[in-house]
Structures are given as structure tokens and as C-alpha cells.
Amino acid sequence: MEWGGGSTFSQIELKFSSKEEAVNYAKKNNINYEVLETSERKVINKSYADNFK
Q: pTM higher than 0.85 for the full model?
């Protein structure tokens, strides 16, 4: 019987120095994984006065 109604895996946070190291760990321990690539944010420089144009 589980208390809290959730999986233990959703409560664990692991940190790795590289993506390959994380993937190898997941494969070795038979853990389903999904790799999400980060995308660069496009920063638009605006001034406060631009809010009133």
C-alpha cells in the first residue's frame, strides 16, 4: 500500500555532468527516459517607455 498516491521515482532528483552519462544510467537501470533539448531564448531588448507606444 502506498501513502501519498505517487510513485517514488517522481520524488527523486538525479544530476549528471553530461547527457550521455544520464542516458547510460537510465539504460543500465532499466528506467524509461526522455531527452529534452534546451533551446536558446531570444531576448528582445525593450525599454519601459515601449509599453506606452
A: no
